[in-house]
Amino acid sequence: MGTITEELKKAPLDLSRPERSSERKPFNRRDDIDQRVKWHNEDSAEPWNGVDCPLCKNRGTIAIRATIDRLDYYQLQVCSCMPRRNAHKYLVQAGLEGMILEHTMESFEIDFDWQGRMKQKATDYLNRHWKVNWFYAGGQPGSGKTKLCTAITMEIINRGNEGLYVIWRDLINRLKPTMNTDGYMKMIEKYQRVAVLYIDDFLESHGQPTDADVNIASEILKYRYMNSKTTIISSEWTLDAVLKLDEAIGSRIQELCGPFVLSVAKDDSKNIRRALR
Question: Which range of residues forms the domain containing residue 47?
Answer without folding.
Answer: 29-79
